[in-house]
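Today's session is about reading a structure prediction critically. Students often jump straight to the picture, but the first step is always the sequence itself: look for stretches that repeat, for charged clusters, for runs of hydrophobic residues. Only then move on to the predicted structure, which in these notes is written as discrete structure tokens rather than atom positions. Here is the chain we will use throughout the hour.
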Amino acid sequence: MKIVSWDELIHGAQEATPSVATIGVFDGVHLGHRHLLHTMHSQWPELRRIVVTFSKSPKQIMRPQHYHGDISTLSQKLEKLEEAGADLCVLIDFSENFSKMAGENFIYSLMDFGAVQSFVVGWNFAFGHNLALQAKDLPALAAQSGASAVLVDAIYIDGKPVSSSLIRSCIMKGRTDQALAMLGYPYTLDLANYKIIRHKAGVQLVPADSLYLPIGPGCYPVQVLTRRSRYTALLTVNEHNNMSWTSPSEEAPVRIEFNGNIEICNQD
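Below is the predicted structure for this chain, in token form.
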């Protein structure tokens, strides 16, 4: 998968290859997101698949008081998008200035500079200044320039539509089993920016800043990944979102996979 910035796209850094595009934050790249990529491939297998997304959550910029953290880091998101079949990822550095772009101009730019002939978006997606352009308006707008658009229904699990917001809520409540069901893979912490403290009792992680999604306090069976191996551990999360476990390895941990526990054990 090739990665370009929005500025590189509109300044002609990409060859005008006929494309189909989807647009969104794609936090976690969950089952619903992958359904969008699957739809792109199944309906337009001959077209280049473009994912237009953001290097940071727009909510972090525009509504920080409602921002609790992301399910995945940017590197994790890009990795999962590539696994899902994206050919090109257009990364937007979202800002207040960018948020003022009209949704129609955003779509026209993708058609003009990305050679987008078709769009695939979620049925409830909204974009552009003040989120004024709704998904239901996209088919008619695209048709004006000879393009098309498909609105994809939500994926439901246990009667609830899969969404990044719901997954974040589950993680914050300690329901990593529900997060697993909606993500389609274990919720995974990238430890690149965590402070790692090693002591006789084991290993402790301390979030480096306030941008990490808090995990519900409790005990979790996990897989700890190092650069050369992995091992099973019981990880404890306290009310300050600090994490600790007993480690059989001297290698530095790089990722932690939450294995979908159903019950959270009581802490001492």
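Discussion point for the tutorial: Residues 25 and 53 are 5 Å apart (CA to CA).
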